[in-house]
Amino acid sequence: QLQLQESGSGLVKPSQTLSLTCAVSGGSISGGDYSWSWVRQPPGKGLEWLGYIFHTGTTFYNPSLKSRVTMSVDTAKNQFSLRLRSVTAADTAVYFCARDRYQGFYFYMDVWGSGTTVTVSS
Amino acid sequence: DIQMTQAPPSLSASVGDRVTITCRASQTIDNYLNWYQQKPGKAPKLLIYIASNLQGGVPLRFSGSGSGTDFTLTISSLQPEDIATYYCQQNYKTPWTFGQGTKVEIK
């Protein structure tokens, strides 16, 4: 069965860049009717969707992140990545990657990684 | 952005009780609505998609209904393992947005 695993920098200094990767195993990132999302959850708070990417490289980013975010996909390594520039303490959160299954125009996040904690602190 | 408002923010119920959580969208979202369950320290888990479709492996005591702006998640008979926070999420329009969550506890 498909599994997702996040990895990357757990501690990032303010104004620097957060970089995370989501490794996909048990299936191909290029197969089927799927896109791939990032979702984050600040400590004690709710969920915020950051954006998604298709295996073709097509992306949609949450405008709340303005121009700070970049998502990319590496089909050869079967993984996708998130970069968030100019981080502040407000970016401290658990970051999840997820698979979005779509049927027509309907999308739903049916497989999730376990999440990785990122702390922004000097 | 479409705002999703859940009620109540938290609830306490007894084992075996019927539990209902509501989710209201700030504009019509047809049936582009999903429900997730999140247990402490864990990733969210998909329960219901397209408003009323039960995800595979999810117990039949969970059900979803609604269309337009008003939606409901129902647990027909609350079990101890249902202790979690529940989130609705719209995928009608990007950016996808979540409700603020409803925390369910056992009385």
How does this structure look, described?
The complex is a heterodimer of chains A (122) and B (107). With 122 residues, chain A is mainly beta. Chain A has no helices and eleven strands. Chain A has strands at 3-8, 11-12, 18-25, 34-41, 48-53, 59-61, 69-74, 79-84, 93-103, 106-112, 116-120. The N and C termini of chain A lie far apart (39 Å). The mean pLDDT of chain A is 96. Chain B is mostly beta strands and 107 residues long. In chain B, 0% of the residues lie in helices and 50% in strands. Chain B has strands at residues 4-7, 10-13, 19-25, 33-38, 45-49, 53-54, 62-67, 70-75, 84-90, 97-98, 102-106. In chain B, the strands form two sheets. In chain B, strands 2, 4, 5, 6, 9, 10 and 11 form a seven-stranded mixed β-sheet that branches. Chain B has a four-stranded antiparallel β-sheet with strand order 1-3-8-7, with no helix packed on it. In chain B, a hairpin with a 2-residue loop joins strand 7 (62-67) and strand 8 (70-75). Classes of the chains: A mainly beta (122), B mainly beta (107). The interface between A and B is medium-sized, with 22 and 24 residues.
| Overall form of chain A | globular
Secondary-structure content class of chain A: mainly beta
Kindly provide the radius of gyration of chain A, computed on alpha-carbon positions and rounded to a whole number of angstroms: 14 Å
Q: DSSP helix count of chain A? A: 0
Helix content of chain A: under 10%
The helix-strand sequence of chain B is: EEEEEEEEEEE
Main sheet record of chain B: 7 strands, mixed
Mean residue pLDDT of chain B: 98
Overall pLDDT score of chain A: 96
Q: Give the beta-strand count of chain B.
A: 11
Oligomeric state of the chains in view: heterodimer
As a percent range, the share of helical residues of chain B equals under 10%
The total of beta strands of chain A comes to 11
Approximately what portion of the residues of chain B adopt beta-strand conformation?
Answer: over 45%
The description of the largest β-sheet of chain A is:
7 strands, mixed
* Radius of gyration over C-alpha positions of chain B, nearest whole angstrom: 13 Å
Total number of helices of chain B: 0
Percentage of residues in strands of chain A? over 45%
Order of helices and strands of chain A: EEEEEEEEEEE
